[in-house]
Amino acid sequence: MCIYCFSLKCGCNNNVADVEVPAACIILIALFALQHYGTHRIGFLFAPVIITWLLCISSIGIYNIFRWNPHVYQALSPHYIYRFLKKTQREGWMSLGGTLLCITGSEAMFADLGHFSQLSIKIAFTSFVYPSLILAYMGQAAYLSQHHDIQNQVGFYVSVPEKIRWPVLGIAILAAVVGSQAIITGTFSIIKQCSALGCFPRVKIVHTSSKFHGQIYIPEINWILMILCLAVTIGFRDTRRLGNASGLAVITVMLVTTCLMSLVIVLCWNQNVLLAILFVVFFGTIEALYFSASLIKFLEGAWVPIALSFFFIIVMCIWRYGTLKTYKFDVQNKVSVDWLLGVGPSLGIVRVRGIGLIHTELVSGIPAIFSHFVTNLPAFHQVLVFLCVKSVPVPHVKHEERFLVGHIGPREHRMYRCIVRYGYRDAHKDDSEFESDLVCSIAEFIRAGKNVGLDEDLKETEQRMVVVGTPSTRVDGVQYCEEDGEALDSASTSQCREIESPPVAKTRKRVRFVIPESQKIDKDARDELRELMEAREAGIAYILGHSYVRAKKGSSLMKRMVINLGYDFLRRNCRAPTYALTVPHASTLEVGMVYHI
Fold first, then answer.
1. Does 9 score more than 60 pLDDT?
2. pLDDT digits (tens, 9 = 90+) for 25-61
3. Dihedral angle at the C-alpha atoms of 355, 361, 362, 366, nearest 10 degrees?
4. 318, pLDDT greater than 90
5. What is the DSSP code (8-state) at residue 522?
6. Is the pLDDT at 312 greater than 80, yes or no?
7. 488 — pLDDT class (breaks 50, 70, 90)
């Protein structure tokens, strides 16, 4: 987009050219400041702008072809490329780096995959975009074939008739904004995918549309990208160095894509390896020719994308390495249910009133942070819930499928695992409402589940989980009520039965589960429900783990620098896990532990 703005200098008079840098900066700031509104709010303007721009350049191209050189169509033959390189030799090869600007922007098509299907992009490009670009470049070639005295001027704006030059310039800037929006959206998508794969530090991801998954907004990346764009714009101040930087970045993307495409041909499409080699040789040779021509301009602006790429690669490698090491430590040091049940008598573990919610990223086993807590403070709540909050790549998770509940160990130990699933457009409930839904879902699991005896395999018991919806989705299930102590003295209706917690001395909220009369539950389930109600009345405590990662003794200097400095810095400055931002601070217990990896 900056290149379009800087073209003012070449297409207009010098007085206007003096404001090109401030104008470009203002457009950039406005563009990035509007990102949090989402693409869908202004997306209706994109298609008219692009269609107008393509019709404009194709019409100007047709006008120049018929006026200046109707035989320019012969330049479509690849034979002229060979003749050009043979005649100019080294100078012609060096000029290939500049011709890359003709194909910059094609990478934006991949960013549009978040908004459109592959078929629609193919149809639009082959039937409309590509012919318009060919006509535009043929028109410029026809104009230049009759005007050889152009110096330091952009061929396109010079070839535009002077009467419509200003309107065309305005449409060009609007089209540049739309193209820049596609690149920004593509950057957000790439960062989101890298973060999901554990290759990039956690960032805040805001989904701006409930219809299109690809329309997202990442505040941190948005402002970093704006600062980098402003720095490049103010630092370079001309199209030549900006073009060198953009050209090398685009051809590098194409070359890497070609190499990765060979893996897709072999591994995904199950084609012959020879076909993949021929693909790389044919397309890779052409791209390598352009890549080598761009590299000679390394010191003339092309170093910027290389420097930024190395910086982000280092950040991603450090985060990926530290994340893998931390996860392996968690897996290797997680404890089994057998260990927890066996260590209880030796430590003299005391069960205190209330519900303990232990947040964990693990969906199986007991996290090392809890074993660290128990061995240093041998006491935990009478009801334990290992809570795992997961975000799934769908807009909304049905309320019927919100909770996944299961026992950990024998039933009488009152330990549960609950996986809560949210879509990216689901609103997280407040603390009290979430607690009520969670407790009611566990109660419904108790009512519907079967008794687990000591003779059953504990591993099979832990792996057996049941999908339980929110209370609003179960008309014939357990309903949760919280009332003042005096209100519970009234008689219940004849249509339902109530399981109430024993009376307490203090005046406080009391809990009851309302079960339809048609539902029959055994004595063990009734006792388990009563104990769950007692624990809920005593209160809920959130137990969070906070790990400090350090390189273990004997590690190399490089590993100590990566873990103790790089990874530790990224962990302290990146976004905390989602659940850590929503738990009430008044009832939070944070357990610290040092991970020696």
1. no
2. 888 888 888 888 776 666 677 778 888 989 999 999 9
3. -40
4. yes
5. -
6. yes
7. very low
For residue 37, report the phi and psi dihedrals to the nearest 5 degrees.
-75, -20
Q: How far apart are CA 579 and CA 585, in angstroms?
A: 12
Q: Could you tell me how many helices (H) and strands (E) the chain has, helices first?
A: 24, 12
Cβ atoms within 10 Å of 269's Cβ, excluding its own: 11
* H or E element, residue 324: helix 303-333
482: which strand partners? 511
C-alpha triplet 98, 100, 101: angle, nearest 5°:
80
Amino acid, single-letter form, for residue 80:
Y
- Whether the per-residue pLDDT at 428 is higher than 70: the answer is no
Pairwise CA distance, residues 457 & 409, whole Å: 9
Distance (Å) of CA 184 to CA 35, 203, 436: 9, 16, 41
Q: Are 325 and 564 in contact (CB under 8 A)?
A: no
Q: How far apart are CA 106 and CA 52, in angstroms?
A: 18
Residue 478, classed as helix, strand or coil, is coil
Nearest to 499 by CA among 472, 525, 471, 473: 525
CA separation for the pair 36, 258 (Å, rounded) = 34
Helix H or strand E encompassing 434: helix 431-448
Report the distance separating Cα 88 and Cα 98, nearest Å: 15
- List C-alpha distances in Å: 180 to 32, 38, 134, 200: 10, 14, 22, 23
Place of tokens 């905390």: 576
What tokens appear for 527 in the block? 């006792």
- Mean pLDDT for the stretch of residues 59-69: 92
Residue 550 phi, psi dihedral angles, 5° rounding: -135, 150
Q: Which uninterrupted H or E stretch holds 379?
A: strand 379-392
Stated pTM of the model: 0.75
User: Position of tokens 């869908």?
Assistant: 40
Whether 294 has a pLDDT exceeding 80, the answer reads yes
pLDDT range class, residue 496, cuts 50, 70, 90 = very low
Per-residue pLDDT tens over the stretch 445-462: 888 764 444 444 545 555
Find, among 395, 400, 389, 398, the residue nearest to 424 by Cα. 395
> CA–CA distance from 211 to each of 40, 93, 103, 546 (Å)?
10, 47, 31, 36
Lowest mean pLDDT among 86-90, 191-195, 473-477: 473-477
φ, ψ of residue 209 in degrees (nearest 5): -140, 140
